Amino acid sequence: MIRHFLSLSDAGGDGVAAMLGDAIDRKSARRGQPKGRPDADAPLAGHVLAMVFEKASTRTRVSFDVAMRQLGGSAVVLDSGTTQLGRGETIADTARVLSRMADAIMLRTDDHAKIEELAHHATVPVINGLTDLSHPCQIMADLQTVIEHGKALPGLEVAWLGDGNNVLNSIVEAAGLMKFNVRIAVPQGYESDAGFIARAVADGARITLERDAAAAAAGADVIVTDTWISMGQAHAEAKLAAMAPYQVDAALMAHAKPDALFLHCLPAHRGEEVTDAVIDGPRSVVWDEAENRIHAQKAVLRWVLGQI
Ligand code: CP
Ligand code: NVA
């Protein structure tokens, strides 16, 4: 049975917890080392990851590459614009070929059905590096960051401000698996996927929808936001106007707990969803969050390959 990581649910709560523990331990074991030096045990020595990008990326691309180096393996990057996939070779045939050449495949794409198709035809594990539906690798790094900053996941109060997007869907999914709560503050018409919410609620999470940003932030342990215009979406003035009341600024942060953390998957649009004062401020952990993409994804890679 091949272990794909298309969503956090593929690993389940126990799998996510095991990966987070591994990520935290491995990160601390190699502290101070040059970033490309393999870990002492080089657990993926000789392994190759093929990465396929149908959308832009800085963090996902670099962090998976560095993760493979640290695990003792290597990565190959394919941009759809310079591959046969971009000229119409089918996803199924691409899956068959890459499965013969690499030990795992990571895909960043638009339609989630494409990654399901890739996984269906691949004979090696497939990892979701972001789709329009979800971004599970990002949330692994977010959870690691929250834990490293001293907050336990069960019972955590997370407030999401802004657009109901792919990153939010994976946070909601994580809430069900790890037993924390999410207050979603989004404008009318920009709600996130109802299926993710229903599953998280069924799993015991409290997921509430607020229209008032301050009410959502009140007493929160973590404040999270993301770009108001995701990759592939039209840059619409109407959407920006609807989002304006949900900007995370110092006044909004003041409604949260005094030790609340600020998270953002990045790239940030300073002056839109977040102000400089917040993202550069004392409660912001966004640079730890970005670095943790390496450590969390090392655990994901080890998990899909049966080492965790
Ligand atoms: N957060 C994130 O996935 O960043 P990139 O788009 O740079 O990969
Ligand atoms: N929601 C954003 C996340 C970028 C990492 C997007 O899909 O563009």
Spatially, the strands of the biggest sheet line up as 7-6-5-8-9
H/E element sequence: HEHEHEHEHEHEHEHEHHEHH
CATH overall fold name of the largest domain:
Rossmann fold
How many individual helices? 12
Radius of gyration: 19 Å
Query: For the record, what CATH class of the largest domain applies?
Result: Alpha Beta
Low-confidence stretches: none
Global geometry: globular
Structural class based on helices, strands and sheet pairing: alpha/beta
Return the CATH architecture of the largest domain: 3-Layer(aba) Sandwich
Distance between the termini: 15 Å
The percentage of residues in β strands lies in 5-15%
Question: What would you note in describing this structure?
Answer:
- The model has no long low-confidence stretch (mean pLDDT 98).
- The radius of gyration is 19 Å and the shape is globular.
- The chain folds into 2 domains: 8-135 and 293-304, Rossmann fold (3-Layer(aba) Sandwich), CATH 3.40.50.1370; 150-284, Aspartate/ornithine carbamoyltransferase (Rossmann fold, 3-Layer(aba) Sandwich), CATH 3.40.50.1370.
- 47% of the residues are buried.
- Helix 2 links the parallel strand 1 and strand 2 (74-79).
- It is α/β, with parallel strands linked by helices.
- It is 41% helix and 14% strand.
- Helix 2 packs across helix 12 (286-304).
- A 5-stranded parallel beta sheet has the order 7-6-5-8-9. Strands 2-1-3-4 form a 4-stranded parallel beta sheet, sandwiched between helices.
- The structure holds phosphoric acid mono(formamide)ester and norvaline (NVA).
